[in-house]
Design goal:
GO terms for molecular function: acyltransferase activity, transferring groups other than amino-acyl groups. InterPro entries: Acyl_CoA_acyltransferase, GNAT_dom. This is N-acetyltransferase domain-containing protein. A hairpin with a 5-residue loop joins strand 6 and strand 7. The protein has a single domain, classed as Gcn5-related N-acetyltransferase (GNAT) (Aminopeptidase). With 167 residues, it is of the alpha+beta class. The chain is 35% helix and 25% strand. The protein is globular and about 60 Å long.
Length: 167
């Protein structure tokens, strides 16, 4: 029994310890810079998510993708076999997070958090004090970001939720 007899508090502490132990026992995904040869797998990942599905794949131009590949922060998260399972892109000029996606079967395995943390570190190293992003309103992505210190600042003209985070 927890000191002071607060059994609800004891259960919360034990759940936290168990969750932390599960997280620490997972292998940490490998994060690296994306390469041109990763682009077909990155397209599979982007098209392989059920939430925030890309309705029109032609809406993302090759020019945008190659800009991020050459000048932006463009990271992939690999599984133990070296296969990319997620990717993230950010603009080091203005602190904008353009994308962070993990293919559905690999969600919940640490890829998103590892990409998130590496991407923010890159933006901080580029001199930014704050990062910002836009994502679908009402999506689980909002919860992902809020649990990592982001806060919603409003809605863009396109209906997307706009979030910011200090670095």
């Amino acid at each position: 029994m927890w000191q002071g007899g607060d059994s609800a508090r004891a259960r919360r502490v034990l759940r936290t310890i168990a969750r932390t132990a599960r997280i620490r026992s997972r292998p940490v995904p490998t994060i690296r810079q994306a390469r041109a040869e990763d682009l077909s797998r990155i397209a599979e990942i982007r098209l392989g998510v059920t939430e925030n599905r890309l309705a029109d794949p032609t809406a993302i131009s090759d020019q945008e993708v190659f800009w991020y590949l050459g000048q932006g922060v463009f990271l992939v998260s690999e599984d133990d076999a070296g296969r990319p399972q997620g990717f993230a892109c950010a603009n080091p000029l203005n602190g904008y997070v353009w994308a962070l996606f993990v293919i559905d079967p690999e969600q919940g395995k640490g890829h998103g958090t590892a990409l998130h943390d590496a991407m923010l570190a890159s933006l901080k190293n580029a001199g930014h004090a704050q990062a910002w992003l836009a994502t679908g309103a009402g999506t689980k992505a909002i919860g992902f970001y809020e649990r990592r210190g982001w806060r919603m600042t409003g809605t863009g003209l396109d209906g997307q939720a706009v979030l910011v985070r200090a670095l």
